[in-house]
Design the sequence.
């Protein structure tokens, strides 16, 4: 399992709390999920004009898939208890500010998926920004994988 010293205490705390769990064998290869993140963000880009809400949610999903792929390669995955927030916490603790936009994407995605006001919808500009952030997260994750030779 590939490990980073940075963030190790946070990852251990997430494991102890049952928010992350360990993976072994083929399940710890994040390559398929990393590839899926690229497809998902491309689909988000196609939906920008017709459906900004869906484009935003897809952009978020693409970013989450890329970060989950990094965790998978370490032999980790979020549990239903930890969910998407565990992905954010583990990525932020280990990989630093390169993925800081993920938290904002996650919070806004929650607002869109569980709206408090009926007119709370993503604008085309907001969705475009989300796609750009997701593409940057995917590029950073891919660069990290390439640099470390994880796959």
Sequence:
């Amino acid at each position: 399992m590939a490990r980073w010293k940075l963030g190790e205490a946070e990852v251990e705390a997430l494991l102890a709390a049952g928010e992350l769990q360990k993976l072994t064998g083929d399940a710890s290869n994040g390559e398929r999920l990393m590839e899926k993140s690229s497809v998902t963000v491309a689909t988000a880009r196609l939906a920008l004009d017709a459906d900004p809400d869906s484009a935003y949610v897809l952009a978020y999903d693409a970013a989450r898939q890329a970060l989950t792929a990094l965790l998978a390669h370490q032999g980790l995955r979020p549990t239903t208890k930890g969910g998407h927030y565990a992905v954010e916490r583990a990525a932020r603790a280990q990989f630093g500010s390169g993925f800081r936009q993920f938290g904002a994407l996650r919070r806004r995605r929650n607002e869109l998926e569980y709206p408090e006001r009926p007119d709370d919808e993503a604008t085309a500009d907001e969705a475009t920004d989300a796609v750009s952030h997701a593409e940057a997260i995917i590029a950073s994750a891919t660069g990290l994988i390439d640099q470390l030779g994880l796959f």
User: Anything to note?
Assistant: The helical segments are 8-16, 31-46, 52-73, 83-95, 101-113, 124-148. The chain has a mean pLDDT of 90.
